[in-house]
Write a structure and sequence with these properties.
The chain has 136 residues and is α+β, with helices and mostly antiparallel strands. The protein has a domain of 95 residues: Jelly Rolls (Sandwich). The protein has 1 helix and 10 strands. Strands 1-2-9-4-7 form a 5-stranded antiparallel sheet, with no helix packed on it. It is globular, with a radius of gyration of 23 Å.
Amino acid sequence: MLKSIALYAALITLGVVLSPILEPSSAPAQVSPFKRTILQRADVPGTNLELIIATVDIAPGARAGRHTHPGLTMAYVVDGDFWLHMDGQPEQILHVGESTSNPDRTIHDEGALDKPVRPHAVYVVEKGKPLAAPAQ
């Protein structure tokens, strides 16, 4: 009898502890307007750099906000119109088939116009650093 009571008490305690984890949240999930899919990464021999190839899907009207990357970045537009503004330069609209490159730690903003955009991106960046960081 005592074992049964202890077992029931343990199950009730476990249910109370797990219920917030198991119950679905009433708050809607936040979905980022930017989705970066890393296709491949490789170390650059003899350096502290890595090469990353990615596809970036950007929702209509989305802007990344001013940010930097810890190394060189290049982008090639495969779908849509890519909006780009590098600090100190005029805004650009890149169309399918056009490309751009940003020198190491260039402060810039990027995004989509009224339709989704998909650039393929190549990053040559310092290993262990975040791929992007807000501009300071």
